[in-house]
C-alpha cells in the first residue's frame, strides 16, 4: 500500500492509504463520492427551498409563480420589484401564507430567496440582499394589517418609482 493525500476544498488534508493492486478506479470513485457529498450541501438548501415552495406556496401561486388573476397575485417577473420600495421587502414575508407557513425561519428565508431568484431575478435590486433567518423571525412577529390595501399601496409605489405596469 502507498500513502496518498488529497485536499477537499474547505476541509483539512487527509492522508489516505490505497491499495494500488486494486487499481485506481476504486480510489477515484471514493474521491468523487467525497467531493460530491461535500458539494451536495450547497444544492441541498435550494432543493429544500423548492420543495417547501411546492408544499406551502404552489397551491395558490402555481408552479411557475403565475398566480391567478383577480385572486392570487403573480410572482413571476414582478415580486422582485417589492424590494425596491419601502415596506415591500417586509410585505412579501408578512403576507399570511408566508408568515404562517409551518416551516422554520431559515427554511422560509431559503424559500423567499429561491422564489425571488427563480421567479423574478431580473426585477431584483442591485445588489440583492438575501433574507436570513433573523430577519424572517423578526418580520413574522409583526402582523400584517389589511394585506390587500397594503399591497395596493406598494404596487402603486412600484409603478410610480419603476414604471412597472404588468402586475
Description of the molecule:
The structure is a single chain. Helix 1 (24-56) packs across helix 5 (105-119) and helix 5 packs across helix 6 (133-140). The chain folds into 2 domains: 2-44; 58-162, Cytochrome c-like domain (Cytochrome Bc1 Complex, Chain D, domain 2, Orthogonal Bundle), CATH 1.10.760. The longest helix is centred in the N-terminal third of the chain and has 33 residues, at 24-56. By secondary structure, it is mostly helical. Residues 10-20 and 35-42 have low confidence and may be disordered. Strand 1 and strand 2 (14-18) form a beta hairpin. It has helices spanning 24-56, 58-61, 88-94, 96-99, 105-119, 133-140, 147-162, and strands spanning 2-6, 14-18.
Per CATH, the class of the largest domain reads: Mainly Alpha
- Specify the helix fraction band: 40-55%
- Poorly predicted spans: 10-20, 35-42
Q: The CATH topology of the largest domain is what?
A: Cytochrome Bc1 Complex, Chain D, domain 2
- What percent strand? 5-15%
Number of domains: 2
- Tell me the distance between the termini: 66 Å
Mean pLDDT: 80
Gyration radius from CA atoms, angstroms: 22 Å
Structural class: mainly alpha
Outline type: globular
Tell me the number of helical segments per DSSP (H or I, 4 or more residues long): 7
The main sheet comes to: 2 strands, antiparallel
Tell me how many strands there are: 2
CATH superfamily membership of the largest domain: Cytochrome c-like domain
| CATH architecture tag of the largest domain | Orthogonal Bundle
Write the element-wise H/E pattern from the N-terminal end onward: EEHHHHHHH
As laid out across the biggest beta sheet, the strand order is: 1-2
Amino acid at each position: 500500500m502507498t500513502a496518498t493525500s488529497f485536499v477537499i476544498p474547505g476541509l483539512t488534508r487527509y492522508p489516505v492509504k490505497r491499495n494500488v493492486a486494486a487499481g485506481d478506479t476504486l480510489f477515484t470513485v471514493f474521491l468523487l463520492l467525497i467531493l460530491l457529498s461535500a458539494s451536495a450541501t450547497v444544492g441541498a438548501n435550494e432543493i429544500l427551498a423548492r420543495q417547501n415552495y411546492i408544499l406551502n406556496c404552489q397551491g395558490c401561486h402555481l408552479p411557475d409563480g403565475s398566480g391567478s388573476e383577480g385572486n392570487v397575485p403573480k410572482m413571476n417577473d414582478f415580486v422582485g420589484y417589492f424590494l425596491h420600495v419601502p415596506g415591500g421587502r417586509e410585505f412579501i414575508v408578512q403576507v399570511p401564507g408566508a408568515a404562517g407557513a409551518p416551516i422554520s425561519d431559515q427554511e422560509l428565508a431559503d424559500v423567499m430567496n429561491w422564489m425571488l431568484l427563480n421567479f423574478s431575478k431580473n426585477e431584483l435590486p442591485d445588489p440583492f440582499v438575501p433574507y436570513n433567518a433573523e430577519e424572517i423571525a423578526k418580520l413574522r412577529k409583526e402582523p400584517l394589517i389589511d394585506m390587500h390595501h397594503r399591497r395596493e399601496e406598494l404596487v402603486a409605489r412600484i409603478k410610480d418609482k419603476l414604471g412597472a405596469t404588468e402586475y
